[in-house]
Every structure is written in C-alpha cells, then in structure tokens.
Amino acid sequence: MWLCNNADHNFFPIVWLKKRTQHCQKIARKRKKVVEDTDNSSSNDNDSTEDEVEWADNKIEDEAEQIFSVLMKKNLNDEIQDINIHDDEEVNGKNNDQSIKYASFINQIEDKLKIKDQQLTPGYKMRLKAVQYYFQLLRKGHAKLKASQIVAELLNRGLWFARCVRSWAKAFKNYGDIPKDNRGQHLKGSSILDDEDIQLKVASYLRQHKFDITVDSFLDFISEEILPSVGIENKTTISRYAKGIYVDGHKRKDVVAYQKKFLEVIDRYQKLMPKFIGEKCEIQVNPELKNGKRLYILIIHDKTTFQSNDGQKSDTIRRLKLSSDVVDDGISHEARVIINPGKNFDGWWNIDQLIDQIKTRAIPIFEKTHPGMVAVFAFDNSSSHAKLADDTLNAVYMNLNPGGKQPIMRDTIFNGQVQSMVFPANYPDENLRGKPKGMRVILQERGLWGSGLKGFCGNKEVSIKNPRCCARHVLAAQEDFLNQKPILQEVIEELGHKVIFYPKFHCELNYIEMYWGASKRYARQHCNYTWKGLQETVPRALDSVPLDHIRKYAQKSAKFMDCYRKGLTGMQAEYVLKKYKSHRAVPDFIFENIDELIKKSRFETT
Q1: Are the C-beta atoms of residues 351 and 385 closer than 8 Å to each other?
Q2: What is the rounded CA–CA span in Å between residue 118 and residue 129?
C-alpha cells in the first residue's frame, strides 16, 4: 500500500486514521443509517474524491430533508460526550473567549432554524445543522480538522464533506450566513425558437439572404414578421448594441502620466497642422508659420484583419498614395500593404516589415505628395512598436564582467566625450579586443563604481532608499541609457520626420479605428463568403470611405484630446461629443456641471 502524509493533497493512510476514528465509527454504527455509505471509508479510504464531490453537489439536496429530520431528533451533546478528547493531541485546552464566540454562533444558527416563515430549503437547513455541530465540537476543544471529520463520520460521509463543513463554517463566521443552494431557483420559461414554425421561418430567411444579411436587417425581420406572427406586440424596436468608448485602464497611474505628456506634445504639433472646414471639410486652412517652421501633416498607422466571412490582414497608413497622374517608377504607388498572413503564406506582420513599409513606401510617397512638409507618424503603444535596436544601450543585457555572451552596443556620449562600449583593437589583452566591456568597466570609466557593488539585486524596480543597490540599476539610471528610443522612432527621425505614440487604452484618439469600422461595414455588406471574393472586396472596402468622412473622424479624435486637456474623463468626454456634435470646438461652459448633465441625461433616457 502506498502511503503519503501530505495533508495538502488530502491523502490519509488507513493505518494512520484507524486508531483515531475507531471510536467515532462505533458511534456511527449505533445510529440508524439514513443514506447508503457511498464512500466505504471504513474499509477503503483511497476512493476517488470525484465520487464524493458528485455526492456533495447532487445527492445532498435530494436526501437533505431526510438527513435533517434525523439530525433534529439526535442530540449531538449526548453523543460527543462519549468521544474521548482528552488523549487527542489535536485537542487544545478550553479557551473562554473562543467558547463564548462559538456559543454565539451556535445560538445564531438555532435562531435561524426556529424561524418558520422564511423560505429555507432542506439542503440549507441540513448545512446549518452540520455547521452548528461543528461549532459545538470546536467549543469543547477539538481542532478544526478533527471536528469536521467527526461531523462527517456522524453523517456517514467522507473527507470531502468534512472540507465542505469547514468552508461553510468559515463563511458563517465572516458573513453570518452560509451559501444557499440555487437548485430550482432559475427562471423557468420557454423561447419562441422552440416553435418549429418559427425555426422554419428563420432558417428560410437566412437561406434567402445568405450573401446580404446584416444584423440590422435580421433584427428588422424579427421585429416586423416573427414577433407579430406569434401575437407579440412590438411597441419599440429591438435595441441595437450601442458601443461606447473603451475606458478600462484610463485611471492607471502610468497611463495618466503618459496621457498628460502625449497631449502636451500633440498640442504643439497640432498648432502647425492644417484644419478643414466646411460642410464636407473641403476647405483647408493652414496655420500661420513663423521662424522657418514647416507645415506638419498627421500620418496615422494601424493594422486590422478582414476575414472571408466578415481573413486577410491589411496594414495601412491612412490613404497615403500617389494620384493616378503621377508616375514614378522609383517608389510604390500607395503606402498600404495587404498580405495573406500565415506560416505557409506571406508570414506574419512584424516590426521589420513595418520599417520597410515606412522607408520604401510611406515616406517616399509623402515627400512626393507633400514637398517641404513634415510627417508626424502616430502609432499605437504596442510592445512591437517599442522594440529597441540590437545595439541599443540596455543594461539588462549586459554582464558585470567583460566578454561573455552579451551584445555589442553602440558608442555613447558621456560628459561630452565619446565612450566606446567595447575594448579597442589595440587593447593590451588580446583576448578582450573588440569584446564588450561589461558594466564594471563602464562604471569605472565614468567614476561610478563602488566596492561591494554586485551585478544585479534581483528587483525589477530600483529602490528609492538605496538607488545604488546594484550595477544594473546604477547604469540604467544614466541619462544616455534612459534616452534610448525605439528603432521605429530612430528610423523616422533620421529621415527628418516626427513620431508620436498614442497612450495605452485610448482607441478613441486614433481616428483610424473609425476608418476600420466604416471599411468593415462595406466588406460585410459586399461579402460573398469566398476567399476570391474577399481578395476583391478588401481593396474596395478600404477605398470606399470618403475623404470628408476621414477628416471628420480626425476632428472627432481632436475633440477627445481637447476634452482630456480640460480634465474630463472618458465617459464625460463621450457625453460631451454626443451632445455637441456640430461644434468644431467643445464650449467651455459645458465643463462646469458635467456630472449633473450626465445624470440628467440618463434619467431622461430611462
């Protein structure tokens, strides 16, 4: 026989339990059995706990009323007097405070059971009684584990039931009650889809409109034909899902801090960007440029996926392309890239492909169509866009000592002088020539090394009390290491343009999300559910959004930014923009009583 004495896994060897439960089993045999002994714990305690779990979940409610009636006839005090607790090592001395507390719990349960007008299921009453017996045993000095096992033995149950008793008792101590059973408490009703005639009508409609069905058209069919046919008067239309802006994560400290920084930077850029006015945003108004400033143009980037019944991945930087009358064999005609993603197809979109798209498509096309202007490339704040170059200064990948497996990093500037991160070719030790110096040598050259400084302290964050906890944190806190930029930003700025990254969880600031929504709406309406059809539909869907719509999307995102600058939250900003759609700028008076206006609006809606 395999024995294990690991209590965490509830393996209790028979030999170990036999002496300790022998007297309890004798008492249990004297009582009239009310249910069959399903676990046979007296002869085989290695049965699967799954049977006990099933019994506790399913059979307990079916037999609870009978068990409760027997428990009420028995007096536990008479039976537990026969249990010898003085020789048990797990029994503690009687504590007056604990005894008073358990007596209070026992009286509370007794009061609950005496109330006749409340709706108590047999299972709930049986659990209360079991917990009451458990508290009585604790009051007499038994340990919790032993007390729960005794209660389970008295009911001819196994170890799982003992664990349940302890769980119910803990809930009663914390909340003054135990979990109620929800069996039979669910709503009993039927669906009109159970009607075969309704099923046939819906199936027939779906077959007839296989290639042109939309959510709105299906809801109209249900409202106008199905519901009236079964005598349901539909006074109001079926509600459509109204999607609000995503606000989860807006209150995170790092997000709040970055949002403030982002709004300050984009505000400086927006003062140098053109604005569009008119009913269809057809009139371009350029800002007054001084001191040799150039016009800034916002170029936003994002990626999305089209599916054959909604895939094909599309990465696009706005509608940045050459006009049909411009011919230039040296550059691509348009900036967007459409690929068929997958291991056996075009692969997966990554940062290397994005950089190639920017260098060979986006920037050449922009400089051709917007000569003398500066592009402000805006990206979402994803981890792939934050990727650093292989030779970027990064203390995380450096060893404390020279050589070894660590990357060769670029030269840097410290105190106005160039500092190389590798040993020179004429270094005395030939084995270290051209090898990385490591953190110790770099810090020594900067005069920052101290005796007893170890390589890494093991903490991700630097300690405020001890900023010199390790060489990695000391070096990472240096200005040149802190100012390293993502490779995406380095490439674009080297070509003379600007980069900005949107705050996390702020989809509403990137107006390309609205462009995707309009494109996918077209794709769904013109989809024939084939791969060949998708290849034809996706380019048309991306070109289907009118230019004035794109400019209005940009205006809406700019209004969100304006609201955030004035201190509004995401929900408040959403309300303001719905209330004042036609305004080019949000009026200032709206910010005075914004919360009261939102509450009033919700009250009027309900």
Answers
A1: yes
A2: 16
How many other CB atoms are found less than 10 A from the CB of residue 43? 9
pLDDT mean over 576-603: 65
Is residue 72 domain-shared with residue 171, that is, in the same domain?
yes
* Pairwise CA distance, residues 123 & 66, whole Å: 10
- Among 117-126, 127-136, 335-344, 433-442, name the one with the lowest average pLDDT: 117-126
What's the CA gap between 520 and 541, in Å, rounded? 7
Q: pLDDT by residue (tens digit) across 524-551?
A: 888 777 888 888 888 898 889 999 999 9
Of the segments 75-84, 214-223, 252-261, which one has the largest average pLDDT value? 252-261
Given this model, what pLDDT does residue 438 score?
94
Q: Is residue 146 part of a domain?
A: yes
Residue 603 scores a pLDDT above 70: no
| 3-class DSSP state of 290 | coil
491-514 in b/e form (b: 16+ CB < 10 A) is bbeeeebbbebbbbbbbbbbbbbb
| d(C-alpha 97, C-alpha 57), whole Å | 35
Say if residue 184's pLDDT is above 90: no
Helix H or strand E segment including 377? strand 374-379
Locate tokens 């990465």: which residue?
315
Strand-by-strand arrangement of the 374-379 sheet: 337-339, 312-317, 296-306, 374-379, 498-501
**What string of H, E and C letters represents the secondary structure of 410-436?**
CCEEECCEEECCECCCCCCCHHHCCCE
Nearest to 153 by CA among 134, 125, 176: 134
Q: Is 369 exposed, middle or buried (0-12, 13-18, 19+ CB in 10 A)?
A: middle
Structure tokens at 466: 């001890």
Binned at pLDDT 50, 70 and 90, residue 493 comes out as very high
The answer to whether 411 and 423 are in contact (CB under 8 A) is no
Written as six digits, the tokens of 501 are: 């990254």
Domain hosting residue 128, numbered range: 52-81+98-182
Q: How many domains does the chain have?
A: 4
Whether residue 219 is found in the same domain as residue 265: no
Q: Per the domain annotation, does 447 fall within a domain?
A: yes
CA dist 391 to 7, 397, 487, Å?
53, 11, 10
Q: Which bin fits 458, alpha (ψ -120 to 50), beta or left (φ > 0)?
A: left
Same domain, 197 and 175: no
- Average pLDDT score, the chain: 77
Q: Is 462:468 a contact under the CB 8 Å cutoff?
A: no
